[in-house]
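Q: I'm writing up a methods section and want to include an example of the input and output format. Could you take the sequence below and give the corresponding predicted structure tokens, formatted cleanly so I can copy it straight into the document?
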Amino acid sequence: MKSSFVSKLNVTRGDETGEINLSWDSVKNAELYVIQFSTAKNRQAIKDEKSDDSKINNAGWETADIINESKYTIKGLREKKTYLFRVAAVTTSKQGPWSRTVRKEI
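A: Here is the clean output for your methods example:
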């Protein structure tokens, strides 16, 4: 299901305090996108640039929203915290793999 992989996830600060803007290349045949973030309870996964995917996958993900566009703004995040973000496309048959995980300090 390689064609449903979300690529080029971009994470930038929003205009307001505690806002993060996410955008990505739209996926052909995607009906929805699942957006998740984590406060990265496993701090070693953030600090260790060579951390393995299992640490990142167990970082306590929370679903921010499920939408049908390739951009989204998350509001109400706490300043001076580091967050992880990821997105997955959903087609008529199933959810695709998660995008690369992006770290961003608010």
